[in-house]
Please model this.
Amino acid sequence: MGILKNRYIALYVENEVGVLAKVSGLFSAKSYNLQSLTVGRTEHEDISRMTISVSADDVTFEQIKKQLNRMVEVIKVVDLTEIPTHMKELLFAKIKRIDESQKEEAFRIAETFSTSSPHAVQVIDIGTDSVMLQSTLTERRNDDLVRLLRETYKHIDVVRGGSVAMEGISTSCR
Model:
């Protein structure tokens, strides 16, 4: 087995009932490790685009792409791994059972993580003893954010939506 790396695929598929089950079934049947999968309609109502993150070696990744290309419902497979891509992941983090100084620290963390991408991390809800953050950073930066929150606070809940990605226009993205 080769070196496992995170890889990204965009699939254009028919927007029909059961297509998601067939695609995810392919991954489970072959014991491929899905990191994330997001799905949404495109500008055409009858076509959806899936963004899939998978941890695989070179040989396995080539097998995945070939098997996806064989599926009748798959219109197009795009390997996003090595091309300039704009990629973001939606993340919500609820920080619970905190005092005022810890709330202020949550605001500082949000501000710090937004220095390179304005408003990427925002406080979107606040209660008497809790704060909720929303982040639209990359998967790696969201990993960093979650790591810091776990080190700083005792009680957090995190929900991640998986990455969405689109091929870039210029070579200066990702």
